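Q: what sequence does this backbone want?
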């Protein structure tokens, strides 16, 4: 049986698994978190947090408006399940991010950034599409935005000092701004 659990001000390291019928709201307080999250249910991130351990999403993942999340561990952040709804700010650090199910980064203040010397790989099913809107996406120096499969639509600016690496899939730029 499912339920909703609220976690706030989590310190130390832990492995947290969210089961299929459960919902967890992780309320960050601006501090680093060494919590390793494995989601098969619903995970909602709010507040500001720098995650230094891995994330595996096989359920529903969402980031609230006004939230700043930094995935900054050495481990890959993996987006599967029902994908990822972002209304806040996401920063992808040195471990990188693998997107197997769509990201929907929409909302006036939604933004994604790939840090210097990091990467994000889109490897979606052929019929799936990710949407990057809001304030768009920034790609740091020495970073890669990789497209292997599926479709990615940019309805907002892409500001890149890195490499766009296309080996498959489809990319659509709807915005007038590609830098």
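A:
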């Amino acid at each position: 049986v499912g339920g909703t659990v609220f976690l706030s001000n989590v310190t130390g390291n832990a492995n947290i698994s969210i089961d299929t019928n459960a919902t967890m709201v992780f309320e960050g307080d601006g501090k680093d978190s060494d919590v390793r999250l494995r989601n098969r249910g619903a995970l909602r991130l709010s507040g500001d947090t720098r995650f230094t351990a891995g994330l595996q999403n096989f359920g529903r993942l969402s980031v609230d408006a006004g939230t700043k999340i930094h995935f900054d561990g050495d481990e890959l952040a993996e987006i599967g399940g029902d994908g990822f709804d972002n209304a806040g700010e996401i920063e992808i650090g040195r471990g990188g991010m693998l997107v197997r199910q769509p990201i929907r980064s929409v909302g006036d203040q939604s933004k994604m950034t790939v840090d210097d010397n990091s990467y994000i790989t889109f490897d979606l099913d052929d019929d799936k599409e990710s949407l990057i809107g809001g304030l768009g996406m920034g790609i740091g120096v020495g970073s890669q935005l990789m497209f292997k499969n599926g479709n990615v639509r940019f309805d907002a600016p892409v500001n890149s000092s890195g490499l766009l690496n296309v080996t498959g899939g489809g990319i659509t730029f709807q915005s007038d701004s590609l830098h």
